[in-house]
Amino acid sequence: MWSATFTITALAAVAAVAGAVISGSLRGVAVGVLAAAVAVLLLTLLRRLRRRQRATWAAFEQHEREVERRILGYQHQLAEREAEWADRAEARSAAVNGALEHLLRVRLSAAMAGSPVPPAYGDSELDEVAASLVDGVLAEATSALKRADEREESLRLAVVALSRRVQTAAHSIQEHVSLMADRHQHDPDVVESSMRVDHAAAQQARHAQSLAVLCGEWPGQQWQEPLAMVDVVRAASARILAYQRVEVSGDQDVAVAAEVVEPVIHLVAELLANATQSSPPATSVPVTVRRVQRGAVIEIDDGGVGMDEHRLEQAREIVSGRRRAGLGDLGEIPQTGLAVVGHYVRRHGFRADLSESPYGGLRAVVLIPSKVVETVEPPEAIAARPAARQATPVVEAGPRTSVDTASADSPPAGATLPQRRSRRGQAAAAVPEESAPASSSPTPEQAGSWMGAFIEGGRTGGEPDPAGTS
Amino acid sequence: MTSPDDPGRTYRDTALRPYVLTKGRARPSRNTISIDTLLIATDPAPSLPISAGRQERALLAMCRGLLSLVEAAARLELPVSVVRVLASDLVDSGHLTARAGSPQSPQLSRDLLQEVLNGLRAL
């Protein structure tokens, strides 16, 4: 456009000059020159304008490039920041994930197990809000656990208290019917009825005792003297329904120490209960007692159908004490007895296992370690002794904390009580084996008391007064 | 513990309940056995079954010489009612022989015994 303007201006100037020349007049020349000058001026002006316009254009273009460059710069920065944010977000999420996983697998587990809770994992990478949320979850969970523990503990205490009451009541029934049987010992009907009541109460006491033991309490009964293991098994059978099916054989002189008499009786009672319940009613349940290198063993066989492999494995876990089964873990009744066995095994270091029995059902084997195994007189030796006190358990019925009856060596608390000995017995003492009574010449008081006892028709001789009876 | 009904009686708890020893029986298999029956082991004594309890074994062993039932009960520290059942079983199985109470032993009256007791207490 500029070149066209320039050309037109130049042509106009040339035309003006040419017109003047052609007209030949001076005035015409002057007009032509003027026109040419105007044209040149215009031309110069135009050129200048054009230069300026070019410069402006260039500046504009430069500015435009600058803007573009800046935009690019911004875009680059933005991308960088975006990447940075992405990295940060990823790191944060990783930290949160890590903290959550640590919370779940380590801290919550520790809290649930009741062990000290380790500090938060990678706290530095976690911002405050997330860290406080994680700690909040832990605090909430810990307090929920604590509340659950408290509820469980109060439930446990309630069950223990109730089972103790039932146990004490059952022992009281046993005591009263025993005394009744003593008073009417010449009336077989009364004696037989008292036996039935005694038996029912013994089972009731066992169930209550099982509850207490499953709640982690001690058995609630204690005996003062060792008891021959064959008698332990018979004492155990006294606490189950089908006691008449239990047949005990084996070493007559191996005994368990006083402190574990009750635990072993209860443990064997539970195994006998399972054995009699899981075998046909007409079959007997043979029990063998045997001394072994590491102590003594009680073997209980039943002629039932046994258990399938899976259930047997579960039952073995429980009786061996490998799996601790508390009150809350038990569904079925048979498991209760096994869990009681497991508790005693863990507490006293016995060993118990179940396997297939050659009789077809199950064989339960209990090993009593030698540190609580003793030797007692064989029954034949008891026969050779004078009619003195012999090693039999002393009462400790009910949940009592201590027994202050006299020990076996000192005169029993009931020394004033009848040492039952019949006049006829003294006559019989002339027989060679019975010559021993001379060694235990009674004091006048004793003589008087046994005589009194004889007249009263008291039940057994030398009964110590069971101290602390309820 | 003293019986509320009878202060003279005491209760001594035992893990071995009487019904286990007698297998639930209160009546002896034979009525002829009473507290003054004399017992003596059969000679030669057949061996007891392996499942025989310590009480039966002791009873049999102490009856190698003549022994009254009541004395046996005292030595075994068991109620007479229990020992009667045990002894009766052993008589049935041919391990023991029962004889009626010795006629030589004087049958003292309760009054006489009470007198003796009073005399002893006065000592």
TrEMBL record, chain A:
Alphabetically ordered keywords of this record: Kinase, Membrane, Phosphoprotein, Transferase, Transmembrane, Transmembrane helix
Low complexity bias: start-end ranges: 384-393, 425-447
Histidine kinase/HSP90-like ATPase domain: residues covered: 263-370
Pfam family of the protein (one): HATPase_c
InterPro entries the UniProt entry points to: HATPase_C_sf (IPR036890), HATPase_dom (IPR003594), TCS_sensor_his_kinase (IPR050428)
Enzyme class, spelled out: transferase
Catalytic activity: ATP + protein L-histidine = ADP + protein N-phospho-L-histidine
Stored SUPFAM superfamilies: ATPase domain of HSP90 chaperone/DNA topoisomerase II/histidine kinase (SSF55874)
E.C. code: 2.7.13.3
UniProt superkingdom: Bacteria
Gene Ontology molecular-function annotations: kinase activity
Bilayer-crossing regions: 29-46
Renumbered residue ranges of the record's region Disordered: 384-470
Protein name: histidine kinase
Organism: Plantactinospora alkalitolerans
